[in-house]
Amino acid sequence: MQTANSVGLVTPKIERFEEPFVLASGDVLPGYELIVETYGTLNNAGNNAVLICHALSGNHHAAGRHSAEDRKPGWWDNLIGPGKPIDTNRFFVVSLNNLGGCDGSTGPNNINPASGSQWGPDFPEVVVEDWVNSQRALANRLGITRWAVVIGGSLGGMQALHWAVHYPDEVANCAVLAAAPRLTAQNIAFNEIARHAITSDPEWFDGYYGRQKKAPVRGLALARMVGHLTYMSAEGMTDKFGRERRHVDENHDDQVFEVESYLRHQGAQFSTRFDANTYLLMTRALDNFDIAADTDGDLCSALAPIRARMLIVSFSSDWRFSPSRSREMVDALINTGKTVSYAEIETDGGHDAFLLNDTQYLELMRAWLNRVQLDAL
Amino acid sequence: MRFDLTRIIDWVPKGSRVLDLGCGDGEFLAQLEATRDATTLGIELETANITAAASKGIAVVQQDMDRGLSNFPNQSFDVVVMAHALQVLHRPHAVLADMVRIGREAIITFPNFGHWRCRLHLGLLGRMPVSRVLPFDWYDTPNIHFCTVKDFEALCEELDIKILDHDIVSGPGTNVLKSLAPNLFGSTAIYRVCKK
Which of A340, A337, A339, A307 is nearest to A169 (CA)? Predict the structure, then answer.
C-alpha cells in the first residue's frame, strides 16, 4: 500500500514505563504503557522531532496503514507523509495514544495491578498536564530533548499549548489548531450531555460494564451523535445532506433523512470502537483544561513563559471552538510580544475542519512548517 | 518592491521591532529582517498573503485594522508602518492615532490626491481620477478616503502628531518639479511621525 506520498505500512510499538507516575490529582499510576507510532527518521542532532497531540477520540494511528487491507489511513494522513505539510522526509514524527485511552495505552480497559481486575471507572482522573508529562517521558525515551514542533487540533491543541507554556525550552515551534484557552459553559454542557447519555444507559453498570461483559453502546452512540453534530457547521450539513432521504434497507419502503442515517452510522461505529470510561475521562480533561488556571484567569501572564514560534489557526464555521477563542490566545501572545502567526480559514468544515482537506489550510500549514529551522534548535 | 517601500527602509533604525499594518505578502518585512536586522510582525486580511508571508518566515496575524488595534499595547513597537493603506480605511484617523500609540514612531505612505494628474482629471475633465497607481472607477474602488499632502498634515496637527520627516516620491523623472511643489508633482507621500 506504499503510495507516492504516504508513509506506507506502519506498526505501532508499545513503550513500557516502570517507574510510578504521579498524576496532577496526586494519584499514582504504578507504571504505564504508551502505544506509539513514528514516521520518518530522527536525525543525528536529534532536532527534527514533531509531536502529534490527538484530540478527544483520536489515537496514535495518525498516518499510513496497518495493513494493505485497511480501508482508511491514519486520522491525519492528509498532513503527515513524504512531501506533505508535516514532511516525513524532513521530520521525525511521533504520535501516541494518550494515557487513559482505549487504543493500546494504559487506560480504564487495562488491569489494575493492585486489584487484579479491570480499572473501569476506578482509573484515576487524567488531565492535559498528565498527558504532557507522559509525552515528556516518551521524548526522553526516544532521545528527544527539544521538539522541533508540537502540534495538535482541539484537545490536541490544548496539549500543544500546555507544552509551550510549561516547557518553553523544549518546544521550538508550536501549532495550536481549532482550540481554546479553556472551555465555555456551552462546551462543558455539550460534554455533560454526552456523559449523561453514557451513564444513563442500562448497560453502564456504574462503569463496571466490563465485568458484566457488556458495554453502554447505546449511550456511547448517542454521546457521539451529539458530539459529531457540534463538530459540523449548519452550512456544511446542508451541503452534505440537505433534506435528501434514503431507504433504511433495500427490502423496505421506509425512508430516513440522509443526516439521520449518517448520525446513526457514526454513533454505531463509534460505540463499538471506543470505550465509555475513556470517553468520560477525555471529556473531563477537556472541561478541566484552563491554561490560565494558575494565573487567576489572566491569559497574558499565563502565556508569558512561551518561547516557541507560535501558529494559531481557527476555522470560520467552527462554533464549538470559534475563531474568537483563538483570538483570545493570539491577543495574549501579541500582548506579551511573542512570535505569533494567526489565520482564520474560511470553510464550511466546522470544528472538524482541522482534519479536512482545505487547500488554504494545507498551504498555510505547509508554508509555516517549511520555515521551521532545524539548525536553530 | 514598490518605490515607496524602498525609500522607507532607510527610515527604519537597525534592530527595530517593526509592525506592518496591511503587510501583504510580507516582502517588505522580509527585507527589513534581512537588511535592518529587524524583528517583525505583520497584520493582514487575506489568508493567501498570510501563507505567502509564512513561506518567507514572516509572522503575520489575520486582523482587520478597521475594527481597531486595541489588542496592541502602548509603545510595544519601535516602528509601525502602513504603506498604501490609509485610503482604504473606514476610519483612517483612528488608525493613525493608534499607530503613534503602539509605535514610538510611525511611517505612513499614501497616494497623493493633490498630484497634478488628479487635479487635471477633477479640475479640467470634471471626472474622478483614474491612473496607473489608482486604476479604479469611483463606484468600484477600495480607495474610499483620499487625501492630499496638505490634508494629511492638517490631520496630524489635529491628532497632536509631530511630523519627523517627509518625502514625496514618484516614478522616474519630474525630480526638479517635485522638489519645487511636492503636493503638485509627487504621486506618493511618505511621512515619518510620532506623538507630540
Answer: A307
pTM: 0.94
Q: Give the model confidence (pLDDT) of B3-19 as tens digits.
A: 778 888 999 999 999 99
Domain with residue B21: its CATH number is 3.40.50.150
3-class DSSP state of B162: strand
Query: ∠ at Cα B84 (B83, B89), nearest 5°?
Result: 105
Domain count, chain B: 1
CATH code of A199's domain = 1.10.1740.110
Q: Which residue in B has a C-alpha nearest to residue A312's C-alpha?
A: B61
Q: Are residues A198 and A179 in the same domain?
A: no
Distance of alpha carbon A166 from the chain centroid: 19
Q: Which 3 state secondary structure label does DSSP give A150?
A: strand
For residues A329 and B154, what is the distance between their CA atoms, to the nearest angstrom? 38
B168/A284 Cα distance (integer angstroms): 61
Residue B138 lies in a domain: no
Residue A266 burial (CB < 10 Å; 0-12/13-18/19+)? middle
Task: Specify if A375 maps to a domain.
Answer: no
> By the 8 A CB rule, do A335 and B73 touch?
yes
In this complex, do B54 and A360 lie within 8 Å of one another by their Cβ atoms? no
Q: Decide if B60 and A341 are in contact by the 8 Å CB cutoff.
A: yes
**Residue A240 domain-assigned (yes or no):** yes
- The count of structural domains within chain A is 2
Chain B contacts in chain A segment 296-315 (CB below 8 A) = 309
Q: Which residues of chain A make contact with B76, given a CB cutoff of 8 A?
A: 337
Q: What percent of chain A has pLDDT over 90?
A: 95
Does the CB of B55 have a partner CB in chain A at under 8 Å? yes
